[in-house]
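User: Can you fold this complex?
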Amino acid sequence: MNSMNSIIDQIQRLNLKIVHKGAILVLVPLVFELIFICVLTGLVQGAEQEIKQQVRSKAIISQSNTLSKSIYDAGVALVGYSVTKSALFDERFNKVVKQIPEDLDELRSIVGENPRQQDVVENIKKITMNGVEMLNQTKSAIDSNRVDIAHFRARHMYKEMRNIADNLQEELKQLTETERKIERESPEKQSRSRTILLVFIFGGVITNIVIALLLLWFFARSVKDRLDVLTDNSYRLAQSQPLNPLVGGNDEISHLDSVFHSMAEALTEATRKERAVIDNAVDVICSIDTDGKFVAVNPACFENWGYTQMEIVGKRFIELIAPQDIGETIKAVRAIRAQEGDLQFENRVRRKDGSETTVSWSAYWSEKEKAMFCVAHDISIRKTAEEAVKASESRIRSIMNHMIVGLVIVDSSGRIESMNPQAEKIFGFTTAELEGRHVLCLFADSKFYSEAKIQDTDTFWQTLSDQAANKIKEYEGLTKRGEEFPIEVLLSELNTHEGARFIVNVVDVSERKEVERLKKEFVATVSHELRTPLTSIRGSLTLLSVGALGALPEQAQKVVSIAERNTLRLIGLINDILDIEKLESGKLDMVFVNTGLQDILDRSEQSVQAFAQADNISIDIKPSQAIVYADADRIVQVLVNLLSNAIKFSPPGASVEVITEETFGFVTVKVVDKGRGVPEAFKKLLFQRFQQVEASDSKKKGGTGLGLAICKGIVEQHGGHIGVDSEEGKGSTFWFKIPAMHTDSTLVVNVQEAEAGSGASS
Amino acid sequence: MRALIIDDEEDTREIAKMSLSILGGFEVIDADSGKQGIALAEANKPDVILLDMMMPFMDGPATLEALHDNDATRDIPVIFLTAKAMTSEIEKLRRMGARGVLTKPFDPTTLALQVQEILKGSN
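Assistant: Here's the predicted assembly.
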C-alpha cells in the first residue's frame, strides 16, 4: 500500500489535470483490453493452426494410403487381367491407372507449400509414374499375347514393382512419419493451448478488475478526497472556522481550492474591516430583536450613552429613550416594521448618567432576521448649532429691526425681497406691499422711468449699482404718498447660499438737509450780521487812523490803531471761520481756470509787502512761466497765508524765498524761510485746525490757527497736496502742489457755476 | 464823479460816504432802500451806484433789475457791496449785470480807488 501511495504521490507530482486523470481512468483499461484481445486472438489462432495441422496430417496419411492402395489395386488388376484377360480387370486396371495421377495431384495439393514434403511427393510421383509405366507396358505385352515378353516383363516387373513399391513405401513412410507424429502429438498440443487460453482469459479478467480497482482508488485519492476537503472548507467558511490547508497539486481542484482560500481570506478581511468600521464608528450601531431588546451593539454606545456593550445587550430599547419621546418612538418603530424598509426618526436618549442627548436614528427592519438594525447619530451638537444659528438669525433680525438705517434686501436684478421696519417707516410702505417690486419704485426716478419696463428697471439698477456700490450717494426718494425727499443710499453685496443679494442701505437725510440749510442760512446771517457792524467799525477806525478826519493826538492815534488792528484781526477770524466751515461742508465755491502763476505770485507779494517791510524781511520771488489750473483768488489766499507765516517766524533781516517747480502735470510752489523750523512731531498736526507750534503764537504772532487748515482745504479741493519740510532751528519749507495748465481751458466745478461763468464771459 | 450809495445800514452808508468823499473826492448821495435809490438814480444820474446786497423789501439784485428795467438808469454802472464773499455769488452778480463786486468790510482808504479801477476796467 505504501508503494501504491508513493506511486500516487509520484503521479500527483506530475501535476495532472482532472481531464488527464479521467483519460487515465478510461485509457488504461482500454489499452489493457486491447492487449488482452490481441493476445487472445493469437492464442486462438495457434489452436486453430494446431487443428488444421492435425487435419492435414490425417489427409496426407489418408491420401498416401489411397495412393498405395491404388498401385496395389493396379497390380492386382493386371495380374488378374493377365490371367483371365477379363474385360472387368482391364476396366479395373484402366480406372485405377487413371486414378493414380489424380491421387498424386490431391496429395500434392494437401502437402501445399511444405518444400521437404514437396520433394518427397515429387519422388513418390516419379516412382509411382515409373510403376504405372511399367504396368502399362506389361498390359500392352499381355494385350499383344506376347507371353514371353509378358512373362519376362512380369518377372522383371515384379522385381521392378517390388523396388518401386519398396521405394514408394519408404517415401510414403517418410511423408507420413512427420504427419503421424503431428497427429499423434496434436491432441496434446491442443489441450495445452486450451489450457493456456483459459488461464490467460481468467488472468486477464482478474488483472482487469485489479487495474479498475486501482484506478478507482487513485481517482478517489486524487479527486474525490480533495473535493471532500473543498466541501468541508465551504462548511467551515460558513461557520467561520479556519479552513483546511491547501490541497496539493496543480489541477482544477487545487486551483479551485486556492481561489476558495483567497476568497475566504478576502471575506475574512472584509469582515474584519467591517468589524473595525463598526467598532470604531462614532455612531451607535445596533440590532434590536422583536421583543425590543438589544441583540448587539458596537462600542460607541459607551462614548455616546455611557453604557458598556455588556450593559446594553439584553436591555430594552425603550428603556433608553427619554420618557417624553417614548410615544413617538414606538410609533416610528411600528412604522419601520410595517413597511420593512429604511426610516429615520429623531428622539432623545437618556444616558446612563441621566443626561439627555438628541439622536437621529436610521433604522431598517429585516423580516428574515427578525431584527431591526439601527444607526444612532448624535445630533445634539447639530441641534445646538441650529439653535445657535436660529439665535444668531434672530439677533441679526432684531438688530436689523432696530437699526436707524433703512435696509431693503433686493435680488441681483433689484427686485425687493424684504425690508426692515425703518425702511418701511422711511418710505411708508409695508414689506408685503413691496415684495417682488423693483427697488426703482422707492426712488423719485420712478416718476420718469417705468417699473413695468424691464429696460427701465435694468438701466436704473445698473446706474444705482455703479454709483452707490460700497459708497454713499445721495438720491431723491419717493414715499408711498408720492412725496420726494432726500436719501443717502449705499449698496452692499451680500453673498448668500441662494446667490447674490444686495442690501440697499437707506438713510432719510431730510432732517440733515434741513439742518444744513439752516446752518447755511445761519452762516449767511452771521456773516452779514457781523460784517455789517464791523464794516462801520473798521471804516471809522481806519478813517481816523489815516487822519482822514484830521490829525489825532498821539495817545488817541495809538488807541485808534490798537482798535483798528484788533478789528482787522476779528475780521480775519470771522473770514477764516467762514472759510473753514465752507471748506468742510464743501461749499467753498471755486472757479478753476488756467492762470499764469506769475500773476498769483505778484498779487501775493503785494498783499504781504507792507507786512514784510514792517518786520524787515525781504521777499525773494523767483519768476515763473508756469500756468496753473486753479481758482487764482484762493491760491493767492494760500500763498499769502504761507508767506505771512514765513515772515512772522523769520528773524528780522532774513529773507523769504518763493521757488516754483513744474513736474509731471503739477506745479509746486515752495515758501522757504530761515525761521525756527517745525518740530518733527508737529508736522502732521500743523495742518489741523487751531494748531500752533507754541500756545503763545496766536497772541505773539497773531493768526487764528486756522490758516494752514484752510490752505490744506483749498489745495486739496484743487486736487493737490500741501506739506512742510523742516529741520528745527534751520527754517522751514512750506510747499503746495496744484495741477498745471488744463488743456480743456476753463472748467468749473458745477453746472450752476458753469452757467454763471458762461454768462459772465459773454 | 458822482456816486450813489444804496444801503439800509446808515453807519455803513456814512463810512462809505466819508471814504469816497474825503479820500476819493467823490460827490456822494445815498439812499436807505432800493426804492429810494432808484428814485435818486433817476433824479441825479450818478456816475456809479454802490449797491448793498442784503436789504429788506427790495434787495440788491431786485434793485439792480429795476435799475436795468428803467431807461433812465439802465446805463449807470452798478457795483455791489456784499458781505457774502462767495466766488460763485460774485459771478452770479456779474452775470446779472453788476459792473463789479466789493466785499464788506471794505477798506475805507482804498474804496474810492477800487471803485475807480472797476469803472476803468469796464471801460
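Residues 10-23 of chain B form the longest helix (14 residues). The interface with chain A takes residues 9, 11-12, 14-16, 18-19, 22-23, 54, 83-89, 91-92, 94-95, 104-109 of chain B (CB under 8 Å).
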